[in-house]
Amino acid sequence: MRKLSAADYLVMPWKNGGGTTTQLAVGPAGADLEQFDWRISSARVCADGPFSPFPGVDRSLAVLDGAGLALAAGGTAPVLLRPGAAPFRFRGEQQIDAFLADGPVSDFNVMTRRDRCMHELQLLELDGSLRLAARADLLLAHLVSGAGLACRDARGDTLRCGPGDTILIDSANAFPLEFSTASPARLCLASIRYKET
Question: Tens of pLDDT along 170-194?
Answer without folding.
Answer: 988 899 999 999 999 999 999 999 9
